[in-house]
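Annex B, item 7. Sequence and structure tokens for protein A, then protein B.
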Amino acid sequence: MTITTTARLTGAAYLALAVTGAIGFLAIRSALLVAGDTASTLENLTTQSALAHGGVALELLIVVTQALAAWGFYALFHRDSPVAAFGVAAFGMANAVAILSSAVFMSTALAVVDDASL
């Protein structure tokens, strides 16, 4: 794969990360979560279940695009500066893991909302 192809794929992953992040965090989360009011958040999760499940799916897509962008930046820079390339990749993957944990917590909240016995 040429460096131009790698750069284009990395740019596409980075753009996808920006789009999915904007939709997932700015639009969906703000529609569901009410800061300081757990009762309203619970009501939103109950009444807007499809939106909440879509938010989890978007968070998983954010994880994928973050990991692809991190890999792409490593592939672009490892020849010139291997330490910096490793650092960018490591921080990108750490961010992907953090977002994955957010998706797990949101999935858990949805499981609690969907199970009346809890």
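Protein B:
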Amino acid sequence: MKTGASQGKHPVMQAKVTGRHAITLPAALCRELNINVGDTVEIEVSGRQAILRPKDDQRVESVRGILRDLFPTWESVESFIEDERSPWSEHPEDRSSAR
């Protein structure tokens, strides 16, 4: 990693592109942006510049699909939600007299 002078308060960081077009992010950059192994980053291209930032919704991505075995279809999800919400339609007075 090389750093160079910057007009801003942060140094310019450099990384070499490998034969497979991969780069290794400098450790200082990862610490500053809280990027960890396995995280996804977004790269926004503007002209000849690229802006790299951590992807915001990584927590959602990390749990995507964990309930697939319980809810194999969208209809099973809707049915579960309907069953869970059905008691909400009862009036509070009806619930207290049923006890």
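Comment on protein B: The CA atoms of residues 46 and 52 lie 11 Å apart.
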